[in-house]
Amino acid sequence: MDDIARAAGIARRTLFRYYASKNAIPWGDFSTHLAQLQGLLDNIDSRIQLRDALRAALLAFNTFDESETIRHRKRMRVILQTPELQAYSMTMYAGWREVIAKFVARRSGGKTTDFMPQTVAWTMLGVALSAYEHWLRDESVSLTEALGAAFDVVGAGLDRLNQ
Length: 163
Fold this sequence. Notes:
One of its GO terms (molecular function) is DNA binding. Residues 1-25 form the HTH tetR-type domain. Keywords: DNA-binding. It comes from Mycobacterium tuberculosis. This is Transcriptional regulatory protein. This protein has a single domain (24-160), classed as Tetracycline Repressor, domain 2 (Orthogonal Bundle). The protein has helices at residues 2-8, 12-18, 30-42, 50-61, 69-81, 86-108, 115-137, 143-160. The protein has 8 helices and no strands. By secondary structure, it is mainly α.
């Protein structure tokens, strides 16, 4: 933490005012991003099929300026490839899954904790993580392409939820 604080040009104590732990640093202000994801889902027309709604939100949530690609790739490499971060990451993923499950539950008339919304939330997390891992391995692929392709693998199953 001392090295991080020194590199940031702030005191260690100040660093802990911004971040609860060392593991929180690569995640940044993820709660703000989750609120953006929630906003994306809240603003999708209810007539749009669940599959299309989730795909659109997933792609929009993971869209960033091209100038951020290198930095974002480094950050995601730290998050996904640092064993010490995996347990902390699960707590962050729980918030992400909660947003997805809430949307699916609202669409299906169920509860967030019901089996179907939870299954879809876990599936969407798997889609996102597999896409990010592919994107990190193959720098010739855009994140949008990787996310779209990963989503399309499970998309047909989501179509059946609308029947």
